[in-house]
Structures are given as C-alpha cells and as structure tokens.
Amino acid sequence: MKKLRFGIVGTGVIAHRFANAIKNVEGAQLAAVASRTQANADAFGDEFGIPLRFGSYEAMAQSDLIDAAYIAVPHSGHMACSCLMMNNGKHVLCEKPLAVNSEQAREMFACAERNGVFLMEAMWARLVPGTLKMLELVQNGVLGEVTAVEGKFCYTMDEDEMGHHVFKRENGGGSLLDVGVYGLNFASWYLGKDVASIKAEATLFNGVDSHTCVLMKYKSGAIADISSAILLRKPNEGFVYGTKGYARLSRFYAPQKIELHFNDGREETIDAPYAGNGFEEQIAHFCDCVSQGFSESPVVTPEQTLYIMRQMDEIRAMTGVEYPQDNDKNYI
User: pTM for this one?
Assistant: First the structure.
C-alpha cells in the first residue's frame, strides 16, 4: 500500500500532536514541515525526524514530494494556507474550525472542487471509538428518544498567555471558534439539524468571546445546552439525555468512557480508548478517502462543516463578535 505523504503547515501544539499520531497510521507518512521561518521548520523537523523542512508555506506547496497537507496554523490562516496547497494539487486536512466564517468555508470547498483534490475539516472527535459507540447506542435506542444534550468545554489561560492568538480578533479568536465548535457538533450528532431557535449570550474580552452559552430548541422539542470559555474553567463533561436514561461523558466530544444511567436504576460503564492520542483515526480516515478517490468524506461531510460554520456565524451576530474577515474578503 502506497503511503500518503503529508506535510505539516505550522509547528505549534496541534502540529506536535499530529506528528506524534501519524507515526501510528500505516497508510500515512510525515514527509515535510513548513513554517514561516527556516529555524522553526528545522527545529520541528529535528524533533520528529522529518526529512523535508521548508522556511515558507509556498515552497512546500510547490514541492512534488508531498501528496497532502495538514493545516495547523491559527484560524485566520486556514483559508489562505489550504487554498495555497490545493491550488498546487495537494489534498488538505485542515484544523477545526475549517475557516473563520461560512463564506470562507464555502470558498475552500469550491477551491477543492476546482482543483480535483480532497478537503476535510479535522473534526477528529467525530471519528474516535467513543463517539462511534455513543452514536451506535443512540441509534439502537438504548437511551430511548434523545430529548436533551449538555456539553461544556471551558478552560482558562494563564496571564502570561494573553498574547495567544485565541485572544485576537484578527486571528478569529474567542471560545466559540476555538472549542465551542465541539459542543455545536456534539449537539448535532445526537439531536440532528432541525433547530427551531437559537439563543446565545457571551462575555467579551479584547473583542472576542471569552465565555459563550448557547441554548438551542429543536422542532422535536429537544433542547441543547452548550457552553465554551477560555477564561473560565468548568467541568469538561457532557450528557446525552433520553427517555430511558442518560449517558455521562467526560471529555464529552471525544469520550474514552461512557457512563450509562438508566431510569430503572441500572448502571453500565463502557470503555472506548483511543488508538493513540485521538488523531490516528482521522488521519486513517483521510487516507482511506483519498485512496478510494472520494471527493468528500462520508462522515465529516462538507454539509456538516458548513452547517456548523453557519451556526457560529449566527451566534457571533447575536453576541457581537465580529472579525475583520467578515467584512473584508482580502483580509488574511
């Protein structure tokens, strides 16, 4: 089996996680890394034994020694870096959220279509064993009819990290795009897309949302309660409630353990560990899609990505979070 040769764009924390995971995926090979400086590319390459190191994104895009690119730069760079790679014939796995807004995301999928390459948002949580098991339980009616979900992804940054891109409007910062995207996906996985109404409130810091709470009412009567934060710590847990009982999920969006609590008093715990650090499954899925010539993922679909992007646009409009990219198509 021919290995898909990946190049990583960016050398931050997420890039490190990807580099550690790809070593465990049979159909993938980490062939290159690109950074804005040669020194950073060389340091990352030395750490992971990567043969090709590029001091610019353009240089890697033009290389014929990679087949695909993993985009691991701040949100504001997702569209530019992805389109650069796709315009040079590279398949792209782009970190979540795919873009800063839905208009950018649509352009990215259009770029993939024009170039005949494969583009997928790196929503790794949808592909881990715990999510697949939880979806199976719900589909088999183990909890009965699902009537509510709750999910909280809230953390706090240290004072010396205030220069981080998550606090910058120009980088598409804020808790909603950073981690709220997981909660919105979580709600859609178990309650679908028939949302009747959305209400949202946020606390703003430096022009971005530091704490956002979203309440969604579905046409079925079900309710989703989702919150995200970057300056507030809450238990990182979630619940799926049904007419027969409920499931408690630590790291709700990508659980490795599912605790079932039934109305009749029964309890059950299901273990569903990752293959490694959680990224292996998405890399393997991406490779499978490319090898089979798919134009889009049948699991992390463009439809799903765009649906969540539109939701985040709507929530930001409610809470007063606006990015430069929303009004200036040339702003990168």
Answer: 0.95
